[in-house]
Amino acid sequence: MTTRAAGTWFGQPRGLTVLFLTNMWEQFSYYGMRALLVYYMTRELLLAQEKASIIYGVYTACAYFTPIVGGVVADRYLGKRRAIVLGGSIMALGHFMMTFEPLFYPALATIALGNGLFLPSLPSQIDDLYEPGDPRVGWAYNVYYVGVNIGGFLAPLICGTLGEVYGWHWGFGAAGIGMVLGLGIYLWGQRHLPEQARRTVVREGAGAAGGRRLARSTALLLACIALSVTVFRGAYEQVGNTVALWAESGVDRDLGGWTIPMTWFQSLNPLLVMAMTPSLLAFWRRRAEEGRVQRPLARMARGALIVAGAYLLLAAVASLGSGASWLWLVLFFGILTLGELFILPTGLGLFARLAPEGLRATTVAAWYLATFAGSLFAGLVGTLWSALPQAVYFLALAGLAGVSALLLTAIDRRARDFLESV
């Protein structure tokens, strides 16, 4: 089977490498800025912790909401390439605006706006690289996802270090440079991507969607799953918020006389995703070959319980007082990442699996709406950090993850026969 864009690198179309590198640098810019955001607000802008948590939650929520609108704009009016170039340029502008303190709020809005055009348009080009039926497309998305985690791993190390050591604005500037690099790679690699025309009206898609409808039972099931994931994210999204604050004040970061930068710990999650994913997939594959396939909702419930265990660990460590070894934080991230791999990719795949033809994009968008709602909820939960003892607060986060596990278990019992039939 031949590709639509001639030539291959590493056995895949050359365009996949272009999209991979573009995505990697975009994620570098996003996570680089996010690694600094809470620290910048509380230490430089001297915002109250409660207000900083709300702003953090609203910003991360908007990062998942604007792509829903941006995807429609890209499909109907701009086309994928124009949306990527325009969105990337707007994001780069926003990152550089972050280097000027008076432009803080406009900069956040600018980044979120550009992200809305950029984020849904880039991965949607992957299928365009392959002829229908090409088996390589199956793991092309896995390759692409590695770029997310490489960018997320490098960002706190580079942007975080620059921000902590030389000044916050240096870190924000580095994030902007990362976005420019990604955009430059995309423009340079145009010859390896298939031609795409601007679309003003999607008549075939509209006709297909008009003949399809999401069944009430399916819509109710997805809504219940989305509610469970929203509760889960109230705990999970604290990694870049209140857990980051605890890394600053409650953890002994000394390593042989050298203090580990607090932002470096945020590199652990993407690093562990890359390290754990191959082994976990191999484990699930062996179980499938043995006929012991775990139901998706049961797997998600187990993931939520694992994350609850991670926060129980922090509650126990925090109860001993400040100055806990940084090794406990590393262990926390290991347990949390394992739970994440059980619940979040499984949930996204379940939404895609239950989507009817003609409504696939809309159904998958509902997953991002749950992420949006969960991020807002996480911002509200973060306001309790200053009101509760640290051990009690982490115990409450474990409770949220536990409630999510109970909800998913209850849904699994009610929907087991339905899911086996689709």
How are the strands of the largest sheet arranged?
A: 1-2
Strand content: under 5%
CATH superfamily grouping of the largest domain: MFS general substrate transporter like domains
Low-confidence stretches: 197-211
Q: N-to-C SSE series?
A: EEHHHHHHHHHEEEHHEHHH
Largest sheet: 2 strands, antiparallel
Which outline best applies? globular
Number of domains: 2
CATH architectural arrangement of the largest domain: Up-down Bundle
**Which fold name is given in CATH as the topology of the largest domain?**
Growth Hormone, Chain: A
Q: What would CATH call the class of the largest domain?
A: Mainly Alpha
Averaging pLDDT over every residue, what do you get? 84
Question: Radius of gyration, rounded?
Answer: 21 Å
By oligomeric state, this entry counts as single chain
Distance between the termini: 30 Å
